[in-house]
Amino acid sequence: MQPARNNTAENQPPRHIAIIMDGNGRWAQARNLPRVAGHQRGAAAVRRVVRACRELGVQYLTLYAFSSENWKRPPGEVDDLMGLLRLYMRKELSDLNKHNVRVRFIGERTRLAEDIIALIDEAEALTRANTGLTLIIALNYGGQSEIVSACRAIARDVQAGRLKPEDIDESVFAAHLQTGGIPDPDMILRTSGEQRLSNFLLWQAAYAEFVFVDTLWPDFSRRNLEEAICEFRRRERRYGARPDE
Ligand code: IPE
Ligand code: IPE
Ligand code: MG
To answer: Is there a domain that residue 153 lies in?
Structure first.
């Protein structure tokens, strides 16, 4: 008998795709180019993938743009990455809005430049009422610190008498994360051959299907995305239940 397939209806893409966009540096290195060239080509891959997700009817796309650990990189590279984010937001925001994309950011605002915070606010405010693809950009994001912040917020609610300890359950906890209200990712994809989470969506990844591809992010195409979705569809998701249930 055929094994039960992924419960996603045939031909439906995953509802929420999350991507660890990795390999920009190696892409540049292989061409004897500065790392920034890899990041620039990485931004072009972001455009391709956002467009493909829109057209395929994906509801949520989360992109890991800058981790809370990426501050460990040389200041010049951090500046290049922030500069590219500025450029991306300035160039793409009106187009994203025109295509009914809702933009959201997750991550800490501390350490981000004032003008980047202003761009985040502008993007979120402009696209708030849009009903198409939700594009979530993880910027200065770390899963462990997100969980710690949620614990602090819950502790304050308990201290203030708004919440009883015995009422804290998974859904209360999830609602205190920055991704509150966003369904967990169905598929987490990482490019460049690395097979780790690097502090991405730790809580939310509980039942995600992982797809790892060797393609470096700047080379990642719509076709690569479609192949990853095909791989996802071949998976059988059980959530701990028996396969025939
Ligand atoms: C991903 O590419 C971009 C960010 C982490 C911001 P990398 O810069 O990590 O590229 P590699 O892993 O060094 O090839
Ligand atoms: C993860 O990639 C972060 C982003 C893609 C933004 P890294 O390249 O920073 O991760 P590590 O250092 O290889 O784990
Ligand atoms: Mg990397």
So the answer is: no
- Determine whether 11 is an active site residue: no
129-139 CB burial, b ≥16 within 10 A, e <16 = ebebbbbbbbb
User: Does ligand 2 come within 6 angstroms of the Cβ of 46?
Assistant: no
Is residue 79 domain-resident? yes
Question: Is 178 part of a structural domain of the chain?
Answer: no
Q: 3-class DSSP state for residue 24?
A: helix
22 CA distance to ligand 3 centroid (A)? 5
Q: Can you tell me the mean pLDDT for 63-77?
A: 98
Ligand 3 centroid to Cα of residue 185, in Å, is 21
Asked whether the predicted pLDDT for residue 3 surpasses 70, the reply is no
Q: Is 244 a catalytic residue?
A: no
What's the predicted TM-score (pTM) here?
A: 0.95
Q: Which domain holds residue 80?
A: 16-143+186-234
CA end-to-end span of the chain: 15
Kindly list the distances between the CA atom of residue 63 and the CA atoms of 21, 92, 152, 191, 245, in Å, as whole numbers in the listed order: 7, 15, 26, 12, 33
Percentage with pLDDT > 90 across the chain? 93
One DSSP character per residue, 148-184 reads HHHHHHHHHHHHTTSS-GGG--HHHHHHTSTTTTSPP
Q: In the chain, how many domains are there?
A: 1
- Cβ of 121: how many Cβ atoms within 10 Å? 12
Q: What is the CATH number of the domain that holds 110?
A: 3.40.1180.10
Tell me, yes or no, whether 242 lies in a domain.
no
Q: Which ligand is nearest to the CA of 85?
A: 1
